[in-house]
Design brief:
This protein is 39% helix and 20% strand. It is of the alpha+beta class and 238 residues long. The chain has one domain. Strands 4-3-2-1-5-8 form a 6-stranded antiparallel beta sheet, with helices on both faces. A two-stranded antiparallel sheet has the order 6-7.
């Protein structure tokens, strides 16, 4: 709850109505990554609570759906740490995102219920949570084309220079993941990458890098875990 309060206080201070919100659900430091999951946080009026919309897969399955939650619920999933990151869009993009949130059909136009945690970003066979956020951003970022499908969103992302994160995952580990976890699949990845143990997927870190390079005025704000605040306060007290 303290993390949720810190996040909303930061958004209130910046007087924004919509942003991306990333969390650290699992330890990805072995792949030089920090944040594991991202969604949208928004509210249409200062007098109403903040809401989260993000893609989640049903526990233990390869099926996903869009979920709407309060900010506190977003941080109640047994997270690895309570560090978070707020990614604030420029005004024009923010307005387009808010329009999308008023139209559930617009959000679902790039949603696919076939889920894989490590879905390949330029294939439509599966989709992970971060895929959906990135493809939704593509739909509102594109100024020279109308995007209504995942294929169109991915084509625009290629042209815009999006680069996925690459993880080195050996064959034995891939086999174990595929056999014992329904929400992990590798068969959408190109053979030349998969057989060289190079797994590319959409991550929060790669989204941050992509948006930072666009020079549109995106603001990246890291919010430390409340535990770090307590440690700093204790050290200062000493």
């Amino acid at each position: 709850m303290r993390t949720a309060l810190n996040v909303t206080a930061e958004l209130d201070k910046r007087q924004v109505q919509v942003a991306l919100l990333g969390r650290v659900g699992q330890d990805l430091s072995g792949y030089n990554l920090k944040y594991s999951h991202v969604g949208f946080i928004y509210r249409e009026d200062p007098d109403v609570p903040w809401r989260i919309v993000h893609l989640l897969n049903a526990c233990g399955t390869a099926e996903s759906d869009l979920w709407y939650q309060g900010v506190g619920n977003f941080f109640l999933d047994d997270l690895f740490s309570f560090d978070s990151v707020v990614i604030v869009p420029p005004r024009e993009i923010a307005e387009k995102l808010l329009q999308s949130f008023r139209n559930a059909g617009a959000l679902r136009s790039v949603h696919d219920s076939h889920y894989s945690m490590v879905g390949y970003p330029f294939s439509t066979r599966y989709q992970n949570s971060n895929d959906w956020v990135l493809e939704t951003l593509a739909a509102v970022e594109a100024k020279d084309a109308r995007i209504d499908t995942r294929e169109q969103a991915q084509a625009w992302l290629k042209l815009a220079g999006y680069q996925p994160s690459e993880m080195h995952i050996g064959a034995f580990k891939r086999l174990g993941g595929r056999m014992f976890k329904a929400n992990v699949a590798f068969d959408d990845h190109p053979s030349e990458l998969r057989y060289s143990d190079r797994i590319q997927t959409v991550t929060v870190d790669s989204i941050i890098e992509f948006l930072s390079r666009r020079n549109e005025g995106w603001q990246i704000v890291a919010i430390p875990s409340p535990r770090d605040e307590l440690r700093q306060a204790a050290a200062f007290g000493k």
